[in-house]
Amino acid sequence: MSAHSAVPVASPASMAVASASPPDRLERLAREAAERHKVDPALVKAVISTESGWNPQAVSRKGAVGLMQLIPETAQRYGGRNPYDPAQNVDAGTAYLRVLLDRYNGDLTKSLAAYNAGEGAVDHSGGVPAYPETQRYVQKVTDAYFRPGSGRDPTLWSPRRPPVRKEVNSNGRVVFTNE
Fold this sequence. Notes:
Layout: E1 9-10, H1 24-37, H2 41-52, E2 59-60, H3 72-77, H4 86-103, H5 108-117, H6 119-125, H7 132-146, E3 165-168, E4 174-177
Parallel strand pairs: 1-2
Antiparallel strand pairs: 3-4
């Protein structure tokens, strides 16, 4: 890409503007990647909508690119050799999202915060770090995901239901609970 190329730039302000109806081809890519990585397709679509507004050429000030706004190193780590290719970008971003959901035991808020700010920031703060951009990001993705008509699988998360967490009882038995 030359220095004179016009590249759409995603900014925190642009995160609020999302395409109401993504092109069928891109929506299909999101749905297929979600199925492959066992992530709710509505969550993948909420992330894409928030990250890039469904613009496969979006580039952030920090160098994140494509539909799921992946840093090139993250894209490569999850199999996306060309983060500008929509199929590779969505597959790598969805794989990364699955890893985060597993790492944080299904805690959607922590997983989204880590997607935006990195695992180190979430681990250090014990939750959503005190970064205004990350706090806005988590809220925007969550709002899009829980919006009526998003296609969200209601059995996965509820805005009022706490996330599943792992506990070890007094006998040393591992128990998963959301109570």
